[in-house]
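Hallway conversation turned thread

IA: we were arguing at lunch whether anyone had actually written out DUF1348 family protein end to end. Turns out nobody had. So, for the record, here is the sequence (143 residues) and right after it the structure tokens. Reply here if something looks off.
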Amino acid sequence: MPGQRPPVPPFTEETARRKVQAAEDAWNSRDPERVALAYTEDSEWRNRDVFLTGRREIVAFLTAKWQRELGYRLRKELWAYTGDRIAVRFEYEFHDADGQWFRAYGNENWEFDPNGLMRRRFASINDLPITADERRVAFPEQT
């Protein structure tokens, strides 16, 4: 069906895990347009202290994010699911223009419409400066 983004709710453990993996893959592409297609046209976001509404704002936010957060690499893990909601925990690493590495830890709460598009995303995130030697082996080098 056009406009659907499988898997769709209600989620099972298997479909929730697939949704989380699809999100991880899209975010690791660092392609704001690709990522934004997973959200409703009027999706509501809270990312740290930034509040966004709609795909256009999401694309602008992600474009700026990945211009600042270089070498970005993300891992997501299913935390919980029910009906049309999924909670994940995640960590990602990136470096800034000066070469300082960071690891960000956080949690996200997601709510989906019946077509499997995310209509709400609320993220709480904390950054930790790390050295290049402290980077996770599971994060292959990307620039």
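OS: looked through it. The longest helix spans residues 13-29.
IA: good, adding that to the notes. The mean pLDDT is 94.
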